[in-house]
Amino acid sequence: MATSRFTRYLESRKNIAGSACGLVGLVLTFTGAAGPYWPVVVAGLYGAGALIAPPERPAPPDFPDPSAQLDELRGDFEKLRGYLTEIELSVTAAARLRELTELLTALLDRGWVAELLTHDPESVHVLSRIVRRDLPEAVDSFVRTRWWTRMTPGTESPELHLERQLGLLKKDAERLAAGLRESEARRQESHTRYLEDRG
Question: 3-state SS string over 47-115?
Fold first, then answer.
């Protein structure tokens, strides 16, 4: 531990700047300008150089590549689709779920949409939230509530809640798709203006 700290100091900017100033002190000593106080001059210049050196800049954190995040999300979505095939749904809920999963499949496609998503971390977050939390939670809640409803008939149908939740999730996904579409349109307009200005 102490050795690595010492090694880090030897490679630090403070030591390099101090050593450079200390060398100036040695040059002054050899030319006779430092006189008999040359050790104080060399040490003082080393200390001054170490003090004026810029502080060490810590390395920025190494975050995962956005395309790797999308690959993980695709894998999670495939797991989710496997889970969803095992759930018995009403015709309406099944239709809403199919519409939502088709939209999510299109958004997670490896084409130009993925390219847009890699530049928009907020959209990746929304998509991740739908796939990893909101949709599985809605379906799981439906499965558990449906079991209790069978034991206590006459309460509000869990299918209706699931259909509403799926509709709201689809709206979220549609807003996400519309935002990506607008982003692509703005990029195209910007490129058109660039070509017009160049011409």
Answer: HHHHHHCCCCCCCCCCCCCHHHHHHHHHHHHHHHHHHHCCCCCCHHHHHHHHHHHHHHHHHCCCCHHHH
If we measure between CA atoms, which residue out of 143, 50, 55, 54 comes closest to residue 97?
Answer: 143
Cβ distance 135 to 88 under 8 Å? Answer: no
Nearest residue to 139 via CA among 117, 118, 161, 155:
161
Structure tokens, 54: 């810029």
Q: pTM here? A: 0.64
pLDDT tens series, the chain, 199 aa: 556 777 877 788 888 888 888 888 888 888 887 778 788 888 888 888 888 887 777 777 776 676 788 889 999 999 999 999 998 888 999 999 999 999 999 999 887 777 888 888 888 899 999 999 999 999 999 888 876 766 566 667 788 889 999 999 999 999 998 988 888 778 788 878 888 888 6
Sign of the alpha-carbon torsion through 31, 25, 35, 38:
negative
Q: Largest Cα–Cα distance of the chain, in whole Å?
A: 103
- DSSP label at residue 120: -
